[in-house]
Amino acid sequence: MHKDNQPLVFELSKEGRTGYSLTELDVPEVDLSEILPSSLIREEAAELPELSELDIMRHYTALSNRNHGVDSGFYPLGSCTMKYNPKINEAVARFSGFANIHPLQDESTVQGAMELMYDLQEHLVEITGMDEVTLQPAAGAHGEWTALMMIRAFHEANGDVQRTKVLVPDSAHGTNPASAAVAGFDTVTVKTAENGLVDLEDLKTKVGDDTAALMLTNPNTLGLFEEDILEIADIIHSVGGKVYYDGANLNAVMSKARPGDMGFDCVHLNLHKTFTGPHGGGGPGSGPVGVKADLIPFLPTPVLVKTDEGFAFDYNRPQTIGRVKPYYGNFGINVRAYTYIRTMGPDGLKAVTEQAVVNANYMMRRLEPYFELPYKQHCKHEFVLSASRQKKLGVRTLDIAKRLLDFGYHPPTTYFPLNVEEALMIEPTETESKETLDEFCDAMIQIAKETEENPEIVQEAPHTTVINRLDETRAARNPVLRYQKA
Ligand SMILES: Cc1ncc(COP(=O)(O)O)c(C=O)c1O
């Protein structure tokens, strides 16, 4: 029996118990050795848990009840845009014409799905101010890498093989330098100035003939809009480099400002964040990439095109970087994003941005008296506090994050961006009510007071969860990823 306040018992197997009942075989039994090589035939049955259907149902229900998701509580995980995922998206993704098609079907039989993808690309072209979009990449980081491979192919096509450096601000998400490295570039770090924005003087000293690109998130991961963006783009373009937009923070500017109008040459979007694809459990994402005209020849193939006869996949692109994903992206997430864009409309998307920014600023000003706020100007959709004051009293950011679990919240992003000591990055999103924002701020303020009066309660948190603090190193080094019979 599962009790909410006790650790789950994982070994429930009882010999001989089954969770299925199969009808009598009414076709001739096949001799496996006639159809499979002997190396693929089991000699002994797999050791699987033996359970009744009810045992399994209760086990997974108990597990799901202990999971924290946007549908169960506030989830202010900065830079991750954990907003509500409208359920109409799910209904549309389950339409049999979308859910039951196969990527290997003949194009003539899936014209509706291709039209949806084409229309989604067109909407993203409009939202980003780019000239063309591919839906192939499966996530943000994959989009980064795809765009960098195109930039590389572009420079090589111009004989600019000496462009080996990609500039990345020190506030950037870790995937930026990682994608640059995987795409074969050396990364050069650009400093953040005292105002939290790119240090222009530092940038100027780092650009040159070897610059392939600058990767920039705008607003940056401090939640601050790079107001010198036009000058930054000019600096990079003047030496022949490309400017890449990390679109993970598009929720802050969508329908208000477009990367294409800020001087960016290419962009990735996280449809699973801004455009309400469910995420957080490692499920499929979608990281479309948009490009300006001079990068179009390098788009991954196939390219989805509209012809007089309908929609088709074009493979005849001599300068393409090739395919980056089997088939054509994660279709189900793209259906959800399309549904979101169509149900919101341009004015709805603008309202999203405005509310996301108001919510973040409201929380930031309520919490400012209790925590260090390293950058004091108004923020966009998220803001970063520092627990440096609490650290002097023996309470670290990790302790605050753990204490928030006692109040039923998913903690904010911690220790990121790296250029803020004891960082707590909070992104409320637009879908939360004022009551929720206030209750969360009340919890944070209580934790700040506890730190002064009774720090042990924070240092020893969480107190209400089944497990206190996990041995994260052991979990990462020795993960148990499949059932092993006790
Ligand atoms: C600023 C930023 N860039 C890029 C990414 C990478 O996106 P994904 O997790 O979809 O690969 C993230 C993800 O958290 C992010 O916050």
Please tell me about this protein's structure.
It is a single chain. The chain is an alpha/beta fold. The protein has a domain at 87-343: Aspartate Aminotransferase, domain 2, CATH 3.40.640. 35% of the residues lie in helices and 11% in strands. It has helices at residues 32-35, 53-65, 87-93, 96-99, 111-128, 140-157, 175-182, 200-206, 229-238, 331-367, 388-391, 397-406, 434-453, 455-459, 472-477; strands at residues 132-134, 165-169, 186-190, 211-217, 242-247, 266-269, 289-291, 303-307, 310-314, 383-386, 413-414, 423-426. Pyridoxal-5'-phosphate is lined by residues 79-80, 139-141, 173, 175, 217, 221, 246, 248, 270, 285, 287.
* Percent of sequence in beta strands: 5-15%
Bound molecules: pyridoxal-5'-phosphate
Straight-line distance between termini: 19 Å
Count of helical stretches: 15
Residue-averaged pLDDT, rounded? 95
Strand order of the largest sheet: 1-7-6-5-4-2-3
Helix-strand blueprint:
Layout (H helix, E strand, L loop, with lengths): L31 H4 L17 H13 L21 H7 L2 H4 L11 H18 L3 E3 L5 H18 L7 E5 L5 H8 L3 E5 L9 H7 L4 E7 L11 H10 L3 E6 L18 E4 L19 E3 L11 E5 L2 E5 L16 H37 L15 E4 L1 H4 L5 H10 L6 E2 L8 E4 L7 H20 L1 H5 L12 H6 L9
Parallel strand pairs: 2-3, 2-4, 4-5, 5-6
Antiparallel strand pairs: 1-7, 6-7, 8-9, 10-12, 11-12
Pyridoxal-5'-phosphate binds next to helix 6.
